[in-house]
Amino acid sequence: MNDNEIPAVEPVEDKLVDEVVERLMNRADASGAALLGEGGLLTEVTRAVLERALDVEMTGHLGYEKHDPAGRGSGNSRNGTSLKTVLTDAGAVTLAVPRDRDGSFEPQLVPKHARRLAGFNEQVLSLYARGMSVRDIRSHLANMYGVEVSPDLISKVTDAVTDELDAWQNRPLDTVWPIIYIDALWVKIRSGSVSSRPVYLAVGVDMDGCKDVLGLWAGDEGEGATTWMTVLSELRNRGVEDVCIVACDGLKGLPDAVTATWPKATVQTCVIHLIRASLRFASKQHHAKLVTELKAIYTAPTEQAAEQALADFAAGELGQRYPAIVRTW
Question: Is 296 helix (H, G, I), strand (E, B) or coil?
Fold first, then answer.
């Protein structure tokens, strides 16, 4: 292995990473939230981690913090940044790489002339897959840097990266959001042993029509309205004063938690969950026909047309056979 390569994670972690990627991609497909590309969640987290780590490397190289008077007369100092695009497994990431006056700074995480960081995004996902404990982050950053880096530098980078991720999780939000989607992902997380735990996800659509991941919160046990109340309260405390539409599933108590947080919000129950609830009342041999007939209701162009489609369904063969479905809708 040469100095520019980043070691791959252990096989046991590959399974966790693959599962996290699959679930995040499924959620991105369902809600339209971008994971990759410019402005994508993974791209932005990768950029933040790399730039924060490079800043810490520069501090270690110069021997003093940014704006520290101790650097006066030291013979070398920071000299701004230069843009550099590197290829990761998730695509191109443009970085602001710090420079020093005498050109002696040699970054180790993003070496000079290196244009590809194979395995870096897998390492970043591993931080999330393993619950992002300080010990795990230190272990992964040690793999990224290699054995030649001092434990002190790895510790400083670990602290900086943790601060960066905490800042993202707690960043202030816009006052008004037209739409917020909320749901829980089930992810296998290693904490002593591997277990499935809910990760609460909130994706918002801002006033310009752009989607933004507002936050992710790892839960301990099953999905519950009490935890959602805590999540929604945190969003309100971060600046979200009003939401026009909150799209969610039919979890017991969840609509009440939404209206308690934003009294004027319209709660839009997820259509997929409504269809699943409807199919539980019917024989499997009728599922395909039911899905087709129910689609006419939720794809109707107007409210009046939807009411007429529901009336037609109720009067039809399947509506007469399964009145519980009619009551559900």
Answer: helix
Q: Coil, helix or strand for 316?
A: coil
Domain spans of the chain, in order of start: 11-169, 176-269, 277-328
Are 254 and 248 in contact, with CB atoms under 8 Å apart? yes
Name residue, tokens 């999330």. Answer: 128
pLDDT digits (tens, 9 = 90+) for 179-210: 999 998 888 776 667 778 888 999 999 999 99
Q: Where are the beta strands (DSSP E) in the chain?
A: 78-88, 91-100, 176-191, 193-205, 211-218, 242-248, 266-269
DSSP string, 88-132: ETTEEEEEEEEEETTS----SSS-TT--B-TTHHHHHHHHHHTT-
Report which residue type is found at 95: L
Whether the model clears a pTM of 0.90, i.e. scores above it, the answer is no
Architecture of domain 176-269: 2-Layer Sandwich (3.30)
